[in-house]
Amino acid sequence: MIIEKVVFQADALLVNLDVEKLTPTEVVILHHAYIQNKPIMGVGLRVWEHVIEEMLSNRINDLERAVKHIRTHYTLISGSLNASPVVHR
Questions:
Q1: What is the bridge-based pairing of β-strands 13-16 and 40-43?
Q2: Which top-level group of life is the source organism from (predicted)?
C-alpha cells in the first residue's frame, strides 16, 4: 500500500489539529505512523478524541513554532523550492 511506503520513508509526521475533521486517509496515515513508532506532532489547539490524542508525540500551538521545532531537531531535504520537503533526522 502506498500509504505504508510513504509513512515508512518519513521520520516524523506533522498533523493539523485545527481542522473540522480528519479524513479517513489522514486517520490511516496517523495509524500507520503510530504503529511504526514515528513521532507525530500535532499543530493546533483543538482537542480530539482520546485515541487521536494518544497517538500524538508532541503538541504545538502554532505552525511557526512547529516549523522551528522541525528545523531544530530534523534536517529538511528537498529537491526544489516547490517540492514538499522530506524530513530526515
A1: parallel
A2: Bacteria
DSSP code, position 84 = P
Number of Cβ atoms within 10 Å of the Cβ of 68: 12
64 and 44 Cβ atoms separated by less than 8 Å: no
pLDDT tens-place string over residues 9-23: 888 888 999 999 999
Summarize pLDDT for 60-83 with one digit per residue, the tens.
998 899 888 888 887 655 444 444
Which helix (H) or strand (E) segment is 13 a member of?
Answer: strand 13-16
Q: Which domains can be identified in the chain, with CATH numbers?
A: 2-88 (3.40.50)
Cell numbers found for residue 62: 502554532
Cβ pair 10, 87 in contact under 8 A: yes
pLDDT tens, position by position, 23-41: 999 999 999 999 999 999 9
pTM of the entire structure? 0.74
